[in-house]
Specification:
This protein has 18 helices and 36 strands. With about 625 residues, the chain is an alpha+beta fold. It folds into three domains: about 220 residues, Phosphoenolpyruvate Carboxykinase, domain 1 (3-Layer(aba) Sandwich); about 280 residues, Phosphoenolpyruvate Carboxykinase, domain 3 (Alpha-Beta Complex), CATH 3.90.228.20; about 80 residues, Phosphoenolpyruvate Carboxykinase, domain 2 (Beta Complex), CATH 2.170.8.10. Strands 1, 4, 5, 6, 7, 8, 9, 12 and 13 form a nine-stranded mixed β-sheet that branches. A six-stranded mixed β-sheet has the order 17-15-16-28-32-29. It is globular and about 80 Å long. The structure holds sulfopyruvate (SPV) and manganese (II) ion. Sulfopyruvate binds next to helix 8 and helix 9.
């Protein structure tokens, strides 16, 4: 330790050396010393939780040109490079010791080789730049869920974003005692040209599971750089599976039921499948929109939001579909816009509900509506994955239990994907095991712009967590099944699908209909409404949906709509069952119950086909519960 402290004392300004030394965390000091030695920054800023340090980080982001101010007070905008607009799955790898294999769905490499490569790229990556060291707490402070973290970066945009998205952790470290386990992240945007990363070909996000450390370099996009977000999920998943709890890609909301009752639910959907907008449905309260830790406490599953803010997709945020967020994005307050169009210091984005200028400044530089990219494709005014960053406590509908150290009790868990032709809009599983297997582990979704690559390709994405798993599928599933099996009343499991398309290529359900599905789920949790039993789960009765459409949205919901939306599509369902089974057959050690559940589902579907044909109208089914 003495050697480390000596090195730090020689290389940090006294004020900053003191802030770090005061923490008394040997391991962390070594990490900081290693990062300074390796990345060779011109200076180092150690940030505490103070408002001065926080303000400094925000100001530096602007001074360095990583963000620029917009007309509205508190609003700034940041641009990522043309090739840096989403999570780069290809170059995000877990580093594993020899002889550890997770399966073919994962991107990993040998730890020694990976470390050599990424440390080589990070060598001197901060020359001439300022390094900033931040401390955060994932989950509420002083709670059984708290997970301390240290983020080192040379991007003040990353630091500023994390200040909006996470709870401060300097004080927590100070009181935690020497040697507290923590996650750590080292990021450098690398060499910049015109404010964006110049060496995109050397973009790497490497996760060292053995050392709870993540390295990220030559990228600015939040999903690749903010260690506490998706990169920390791998570390959280690894730790949770060891200790018997879950780290999930889930929102958490409080849904108001009859007589003012509030019921908490989680929802796991892949990126860009309506997670944030579901968490923001008017009339509900929001605990979180992206990442949850779930633990068993006192006979309940309880969940916390790992985060304290939203890094949300801005496309289609407009006064009609997303009034809460739209208001916030058009009022004074601290907001970071990324990859939108800016004209005369005003931000514009696709689907904002008003006209977008024909020219302005965007992620491609000076933009005009006829501009084309290198492949000859027209450049959108704002990127499909353009985002806004805000703190949750700015929202009027922020839930009162956001910072409750015990979290909130989870009564329903919802799984949703982008599915144009197979599943009904909402459905309840028969029980915990059926739900985990046929709704969670079988989840598929058509790809979106949140990750680099083609859009609209159907992909297997169990629990919407595949991108972040730090365990083989058999371990993850086994632990998931065990997680709530011991509870007398495990959360009920539901599936939703907002993306069914009719023969003319139009969405079968409206943007706001999800409110009705949530209200139906709320009533089902309390056994207040009946349902029809289908081969794949319980679906709503027409009369309940008609009532809820009327009371929640003031709409007449017709029997024709119901029939069209809730028809059991047997060939598509059978094909899905077979696709899922084939994927799991290629894995090793998958719990046998997965195959037996899929087999039973297939038999039920075949029986229904015998009795009613390929497409089974809900009106043909009898009430099942
Ligand atoms: C997602 O893509 O799932 C997000 C944004 O929530 S990112 O930070 O890129 O992961
Ligand atoms: Mn996400």
């Amino acid at each position: 330790m003495e050697e480390t402290l000596k090195y730090l004392e020689e290389n940090l300004e006294p004020e900053h050396f003191k802030k770090l030394a005061d923490l008394g965390q040997t391991d962390m000091s070594k990490f900081v010393a290693m990062a300074v030695k390796l990345c060779k920054p011109a200076s180092v800023f150690i940030a505490t939780d103070s408002s001065e340090d926080r303000e400094y980080v925000r100001r530096r982001a602007i001074e360095l040109g990583e963000e620029f101010e917009l007309a509205m007070e508190g609003h700034t905008c940041h641009f990522d490079g043309m090739q840096d607009q989403g999570r780069d799955k290809e170059n995000t790898r877990q580093l594993l010791p020899p002889n550890v294999h997770l399966g073919e769905h994962f991107n990993y490499m040998l730890r020694d080789e990976g470390l050599e490569e990424v440390l080589g790229i990070l060598d001197g990556a901060m020359s001439g730049k300022e390094m900033v060291v931040r401390f955060y707490c994932l989950g509420p402070k002083s709670s059984v869920f708290s997970q301390l973290c240290c983020q080192i970066t040379d991007s003040f945009y990353v630091g500023h974003s994390e200040d909006l998205l996470y709870r401060p952790g300097y004080e927590e470290f100070l009181h935690a005692g020497e040697g507290v386990e923590h996650f750590r992240f080292l990021h450098s945007a690398g060499r910049l040209e015109n404010g964006v990363c110049a060496d995109i070909d050397k973009r790497r996000m490497f996760i060292d599971l053995q050392d709870n450390t993540v390295y990220s370099v030559n990228t600015q996009y939040g999903g690749n750089t903010m260690g506490l977000k998706k990169l920390a999920m791998r570390l959280g998943i690894q730790k949770g599976l060891r200790e018997g709890w879950l780290t999930e890609h889930m929102f958490i909301v409080g849904v108001r039921g009859p007589r003012g009752r509030k019921t908490y639910m989680t929802g796991a959907y892949p990126s860009m499948c309506g997670k944030t907008s579901t968490a923001m449905i008017p009339g509900q309260t929001i605990v979180g929109d992206d990442i949850a830790y779930l633990k068993k406490i006192g006979g309940d599953v309880r969940a916390v939001n790992v985060e304290h803010g939203i890094f949300g997709i801005i496309q289609d945020v407009n006064p009609e579909d997303d009034p809460g967020i739209y208001d916030l994005l058009t009022s004074p307050g601290e907001v970071i816009f990324s990859n939108v169009l800016v004209k005369e210091e005003k931000p514009y984005w696709l689907g904002m509900g008003s006209e977008i200028p024909e020219s302005g400044l965007n992620f491609s530089g000076e933009w005009h509506k006829d501009n084309k990219d290198a492949k000859g494709k027209k450049i959108d005014p704002s990127h499909k994955n353009a985002r806004f960053t805000i703190s949750l406590d700015m929202l009027e509908n922020c839930d009162e239990n956001l910072d409750n150290p015990e979290g909130v009790p989870v009564k329903a868990m919802i799984f949703g994907g982008r599915d144009s032709d197979t599943s009904v809009p909402v459905e309840q599983s028969f029980d915990w095991v059926h739900g985990v297997i046929t709704k969670g582990a079988s989840l598929e979704s058509e790809t979106t712009a949140a990750t680099l690559g083609a859009d609209g390709v159907r992909e297997f994405n169990p629990m919407s967590n595949l991108d972040f798993l730090a365990a083989s599928l058999d371990t993850y599933l086994q632990k998931y099944l065990e997680f709530a099996a011991v509870l007398s009343k495990p959360p009920k499991i539901f599936a939703v699908n907002y993306f069914l398309i009719d023969n003319e290529g139009k969405y079968m359900t409206g943007m706001l209909d999800k409110k009705v599905w949530m209200l139906w789920i709320e009533e089902r949790v309390h056994d207040e409404v009946g349902a029809l039993k289908t081969p794949t789960g319980y679906i709503p009765l027409y009369k309940d949906l008609r009532r809820l459409f009327k009371s929640a949205l003031g709409l007449e919901y017709t029997e024709d709509q119901y029939k069209q939306q809730f028809t059991v599509r047997v060939p598509e369902q059978l094909a899905k069952t077979m696709r899922t089974e084939a994927i799991y057959r290629q894995e090793w050690g998958i719990p046998e119950v997965l195959f037996s559940q899929l087999d039973e589902q297939r038999k039920r579907l075949e029986e229904a086909r015998e009795a009613f044909g390929d497409y089974v109208s809900p009106l043909m089914l009898s009430q099942g519960l």
